[in-house]
Specification:
696 residues; mainly beta; Maltoporin, Chain A; 22-stranded antiparallel β-barrel; 5-stranded mixed beta sheet; 40 strands; 4% helix; globular; Plug_dom; cell outer membrane; transmembrane; membrane; transport
Length: 696
C-alpha cells in the first residue's frame, strides 16, 4: 500500500552498492507489478512499541495478522485465506529474508523467528505475484530486506519497555569502505505476558557483508541466529474469557459430575515452544549490458521443541535445509521498472528428525514415535513484461514439484500412553506411519497493466496457483484427550490445493490522495482445511471446492498540512461450495470485515501524535458448521513520536486505550458440539509503552 511519498532512485540504487536493493527500487518495481503488492518501511512502524509481525502487517490491505498466543509468538497470518486455519500459522505463505526462504523444504515456517524492526523494509506479494520469487503457495510471500553498511551507515541503539514486563533493546551498526560494506545488528526482548503462563523471550543476531568485485559483479553474504521461546496460555471458553481474560486455560471443569468448558489444560501441561535457528547465505549478482544474472545459496538449521498439551505431547524436530536460487533477467530498457523477460528457479531440499514424546504434567517422559522426514520443493517461473504503448502485457508460466517422504524409525511394537490425571501408563499397538507423497503442477498467468498517468495504474490478471501440504498436515498424533496422551498417528493421503484467481485493481496518487485497491475471486479445489479438536489435536482434510472473494483497500489523504488520515480495509467472503458436511457455510476463522484507520496530527517538525482504531464489525465463525462465533470488537491505540535532533528521538504508545475484552484469535473447529468450547484467545488489555532511540 502506497501511503508515504514515493521515493524513486536510479536503477541500481547507490553507485556500486554491492548485491543489494533499495527501498526506492522495491517501490518502483512493485508499483509496476500487475497485482497486489506493498512495501512497508521503518517510518510506518515509528512510535510502535512491542512490535510483533502482526503489528507490522496489519497496515497492509489483504493481509490479516492477529496475535494468536501473545508476546513473541506465531501470530495468525493469512493472505486471501491461505493459512487462516493453521493453529498457529505454519503454512500458506513464503517467508523470505533477503530473498532466501525461512520456510523449511516442506513449506512450513515459524514466523516468530522474524523481528520486523530488524529489516530495512519488507515487500509483500499477494497471490500469484509471489511466483516470481519461487513461491509454491496460494497466499503469497513476504520478503524482509536487511539494512546494509551502504544504505545504513553509522550506529543506532534503542531501548523500550512497558506493561506486562516488556523490555526490548536493539543495537546495530554498519559502514562502507570503497567497494566493501558490512552491517551487524542484535536485539533482545522479553515479556512476562498479559496472561498467566504467557511469557516470551527472543534473541536475534544478524550480519551481512558485501563486496563489489568489479564493474559487473558484486556479492553479499548473510549470517543470522535466532533463539525464540514462548509459553502458551491456551484457549478459553467465551464466558471464561469474559470473566477473566488473563487466566491460562484450566482444562475441563466438572460441575455436578459433568465436564464443562472442554479444552486443553495449560496450567497443568504448560505448553510452550522453544526454537533455535541458524542461517547462512550468499547472493552474487552479475550485470553484463542488458543481461542480469543472480545466484543465491542458503542453509538453515532449525531445532524446534513444541510442548503441546498431553493430548498431543512433545514434538521435537531438528534438521537442515539447503536452498539454491538462480535468476536471469533481460533488460534492454534500463529505465523500465520491470525487465522485458525474467526467469527464476528455486530448489529447496531438507531433512529432519522428529521425535514424539508424552507430556506428563509438563515433564517429557516416554517417546511414542519417531520419524525421519525428507522433503524437496522445486519451482521454476518465467515471464514477460511486454510494453505496448501505455499497456504492459505480462504472460508467465511456473512449474512446481514437491516430494514429502516420511520413514517411521520408532521400531517398537507398542507405543506407551499416559493419563495426566492419575499417572497411569499403558501401551497400544504401533502401526507403521511411513509414506511417500509427490506433487507437481503447471501454473500459467496472464496480466495487463495500463498507465493512466505517472504513478497511476490499473491492472487485471488471471492466474493459477498450487500448494502442496506440509509434514504437519500429513503426519498428526491422534487419539489424545485433554487428560490422556495420543494413541496413534494419522497419515492422510492429502492432495495439493489449487486455485484459479481473477483479480483487478488500481493504485496511484493524485494531489493529496494515495490509494491501493484490489478485488479478486478465487475458485479453489482441494483446499487444505485444518481444524482443532477438544484436546487441542490438529487434523487436515481436503475440501472439494471452496470460493474466496475479497476486496483489499488502502489509502491516505493529507487533510491539511498538519493532519493526515490513512485507512486499511479488507473484505473477505470465504465459503465452502456445496460441501457434503458444511454446504455453503463460511470457512471458520476469517472475519468478513477488518478495518484499520488512523489520524495523525503533526504539531511541529519534531512532534506528532496519532490515534488509531482497529475494528472487526461482525462476528467471526469459530467452526466450519457456523454454530459458534467470536463477537465483533474494536480497539483504540494512541501514540506520539518526538525527534529531539538528528541523534535522539523518543516515543510513547497506549494500546487498547479503553481496555476492551475481546478475542484476538480463535481456534478453528470442524463442528463445535457445545457453546462452552474452549476456543478463544484473548487480546491484550490496556498497555503503556515507551522508548528512546539514539543514532551515532
Amino acid at each position: 500500500m502506497t501511503l508515504d511519498e514515493l521515493v524513486v532512485e536510479a536503477a541500481g540504487g547507490q553507485p556500486g552498492a554491492p548485491a543489494t536493493t533499495t527501498e526506492g527500487e522495491a517501490r518502483r518495481r512493485l508499483a509496476a507489478t500487475p497485482g497486489g503488492t506493498a512495501v512497508v518501511d521503518q517510518r510506518q512502524l515509528e512510535a510502535r512499541s512491542d512490535v510483533s509481525i502482526a503489528d507490522s502487517l496489519n497496515i497492509v490491505p489483504g493481509v490479516i495478522a492477529n496475535s494468536f498466543l501473545g508476546g513473541n509468538d506465531q501470530p495468525k497470518i493469512h493472505i486471501r485465506g491461505s493459512g487462516q486455519q493453521t493453529n498457529p500459522t505454519e503454512r500458506g505463505l513464503l517467508i523470505l529474508q533477503d530473498g532466501l526462504p525461512l520456510n523449511r523444504a516442506d513449506g512450513s515456517y515459524i514466523v516468530g523467528l522474524i523481528d520486523p524492526r530488524m529489516a530495512d523494509f519488507f515487500e509483500v506479494y499477494r497471490g500469484y505475484t509471489a511466483n516470481r520469487l519461487g513461491a509454491t503457495v496460494l497466499g503469497g510471500a513476504i520478503n524482509f530486506v536487511s539494512p546494509t553498511g551502504s544504505g545504513s551507515p553509522g550506529a543506532q541503539v534503542s531501548v523500550e519497555g512497558g506493561s506486562y514486563g516488556y523490555v526490548r533493546t536493539q543495537v546495530q551498526g554498519g559502514d562502507r569502505k570503497g567497494d566493501y560494506d558490512a552491517f551487524v545488528q542484535y536485539s533482545y526482548d522479553q515479556r512476562d505476558g498479559y496472561r498467566t503462563w504467557n511469557g516470551s523471550d527472543r534473541t536475534i543476531f544478524s550480519a551481512n557483508a558485501g563486496a563489489r568485485i568489479n564493474d559487473n559483479i558484486s556479492t553479499r553474504v548473510f549470517v543470522g541466529y535466532t533463539d525464540l521461546g514462548f509459553e502458551i496460555a491456551g484457549p478459553l471458553s467465551w464466558n471464561r474469557m469474559k470473566a477473566d481474560p488473563t487466566q491460562a486455560a484450566p482444562g475441563p471443569i466438572t460441575v455436578n459430575g459433568v465436564p464443562t468448558e472442554p479444552g486443553p489444560n495449560a496450567l497443568r501441561d504448560k505448553p510452550l515452544r522453544d526454537t533455535q535457528q541458524a542461517r547462512v547465505g550468499s547472493r552474487t549478482t552479475a550485470t553484463y549490458g542488458e543481461h542480469v544474472f543472480d545466484l543465491a545459496l542458503g542453509y538453515t538449521y532449525t531445532d524446534d521443541t513444541f510442548r503441546f498439551p498431553v493430548g498431543t505431547g512433545y514434538r521435537i524436530t531438528d534438521g537442515g535445509d539447503f536452498t539454491t536460487s538462480a535468476r536471469y533477467a533481460y533488460r534492454p530498457d534500463k529505465t523500465a521498472a520491470l525487465p522485458l523477460f525474467e526467469t527464476t528457479a528455486m530448489y529447496v531440499v531438507g531433512s529432519a528428525d522428529r521425535t514424539w514424546a508424552n507430556n506428563y504434567r509438563s515433564i517429557r517422559t516416554t517417546a511414542f514415535g519417531s520419524n525421519e522426514l525428507e522433503a524437496q520443493t522445486l519451482s521454476v517461473w518465467s515471464g514477460f513484461n511486454v510494453p505496448v504503448g501505455a499497456f504492459t502485457i505480462s504472460p508467465a508460466l511456473s512449474y512446481m514439484m514437491a516430494t514429502r517422504d516420511n520413514t517411521d524409525t520408532f521400531g517398537a511394537a507398542r507405543r506407551p500412553t499416559i493419563n495426566a490425571v492419575s499417572g497411569a501408563t499403558g501401551t497400544v499397538a504401533a502401526t507403521n506411519t511411513s509414506f511417500s507423497r509427490s506433487y507437481d503442477a503447471f501454473n500459467p498467468s496472464l496480466a495487463f497493466l495500463y498507465n493512466l498517468a505517472p504513478n497511476n495504474v490499473v491492472f487485471a490478471a488471471v492466474s493459477r496457483t498450487y500448494e502442496a501440504p506440509t509434514f504437519d498436515d500429513l503426519l498428526e498424533a491422534t487419539g489424545g484427550t485433554p487428560n490422556t496422551s495420543p494413541t496413534g498417528f494419522a497419515t492422510p493421503n492429502l492432495k495439493g490445493q489449487s486455485s484459479i484467481t481473477a483479480e483487478t485493481g488500481t493504485r496511484g496518487t493524485w494531489d493529496r490522495f494515495a490509494w491501493d485497491v484490489v478485488t479478486y475471486y478465487s475458485w479453489i479445489e482441494d483446499e487444505l482445511i485444518r481444524t482443532t479438536n477438544i484436546s487441542g489435536a490438529l487434523s487436515t482434510v481436503n475440501a472439494d471446492k471452496t470460493r474466496h472473494f475479497g476486496v483489499e483497500l488502502g489509502g491516505s489523504v493529507r487533510l491539511t498540512d498538519a493532519l493526515t488520515a490513512r485507512v486499511t480495509y479488507t473484505f473477505q467472503d470465504f465459503r465452502f461450495w456445496n460441501d457434503p458436511l458444511y454446504g455453503d457455510n463460511r470457512i471458520a476463522g476469517a472475519p468478513r470485515h477488518v478495518f484499520l484507520g488512523a489520524l495523525r496530527y503533526t504539531i511541529n517538525p519534531q512532534l506528532w501524535v496519532e490515534g488509531e482504531v482497529q475494528w472487526v464489525p461482525d462476528d467471526v465463525p469459530v467452526d466450519n458448521a457456523n454454530t459458534l462465533f467470536s463477537e465483533a470488537f474494536a480497539t483504540v491505540n494512541m501514540r506520539a513520536h518526538y525527534k529531539y535532533d538528528a541523534r535522539w528521538s523518543g516515543y510513547a504508545e497506549v494500546r487498547n486505550l479503553f481496555d476492551a475484552n475481546y478475542a484476538a484469535s480463535t481456534l478453528t473447529i470442524g463442528r463445535a458440539t457445545r457453546a462452552d468450547q474452549a476456543a478463544f484467545l484473548p487480546g491484550d488489555g490496556r498497555a503503556v509503552y515507551g522508548g528512546i532511540k539514539a543514532r551515532f
